[in-house]
Amino acid sequence: LRILGIETSCDETAAAVVTRLEDGSAVIEADVVLSQLDEHSAYGGVVPEIAARAHVDALDTLIEEALARAGITLADVDAIAATAGPGLIGGLLVGLMTGKAIARATGKPLYAINHLEGHALTARLTDGVAFPYLMLLVSGGHTQLVLVRGVGDYERWGTTIDDALGEAFDKTAKLLGLPYPGGPAVERAAASGDPKRFAFPRPLVGEARLDFSFSGLKTAVRQAAESIAPITDQDVADICASFQRAIARTLMDRIGRGLARFRETYPDATNPALVVAGGVAANKAVRMTLDDLCAGYGFQFLAPPHHLCTDNAVMIAWAGLERMALDMPPDELTVQPRSRWPLDADAKALLAYGK
Ligand code: ATP
Ligand code: MG
Ligand code: FE
User: Fold this and answer.
1) Which residue in 249, 248, 25, 6 sits closest to 128, CA to CA?
2) Is 157 helix (H, G, I), strand (E, B) or coil?
3) Which positions bind Fe cation (predicted)?
4) Summary mean pLDDT of the chain
């Protein structure tokens, strides 16, 4: 089975060609991603209208490039998979309509994929992880702990009640005068800082529910920065290091509870796994924290390679292939994109009604 994947939900335009072999393994034949970082960095965040126009400009060429790299034409794919949500509606429209047009012109089936499902299933492509497992998605737009029971079968155990974790990194960087995107800049600064200088809050730590909250942390960072004048590079480094420490401690508590709940839910699981996805997974402090935590709870810790953790079309293609392999029906060409689309809601029912 071979599929063309299309991803346009945020600020990456991406196309991929992926083949699934009989044994369930995958061959990535093409993986093309065009980041719009430069177009948005002047604004310190993603500007939806600019993103949508950039997708329009780039998508056709990117699809052609993906096909060329795979050495095939559209006649050689069995289906098309395109992200239908959640995300910025302008970008979703561009990608999904392109997918529909290709499906209509070639007569091939179209799979409208939930972007979060793409992130959730990536570790099956890279590591062949078996259901059920836990997935932590930490990106600029999402912070979710999800129980992955099967293809199309998800239960959200925790989510952020305010800012996403990547957003907390980006906002912290912004108010410290560090460049966008904030995550890598904060991590770099933190390397030479004192993580114990500031006692930043660890929101929701100790609570039984598995949700996250990061906006209080951001406020504490602002108060710390404003209390020092003039602020030196060393002060900034200390704030960043203390910020990362607060996040590590928060994750330890929140995810630790999640792992314990997984154990309670599946007492017979022999090789439980935690999978991490999203751009924040690149952060070494975050990775080390999760790695240690998993070791302590007897969980396997899986972090797909960085380019498959951030937004890409390989994961969208793979989610389509998983559906095809299970003979799940493709979508009607009347399918509508959804800017909001929770992973654990009845996807088909929601799509049928649009909006
Ligand atoms: P989504 O719609 O899936 O949320 P996104 O574009 O917001 O997409 P990603 O591309 O997966 O998310 O990740 C970008 C986020 O990851 C940004 O918030 C960025 O600051 C953060 N990030 C990247 N590298 C690091 C790092 N080394 N440490 C911490 N955060 C990082
Ligand atoms: Mg992105
Ligand atoms: Fe994403």
Assistant:
1) 25
2) strand
3) 115, 119, 311
4) 95
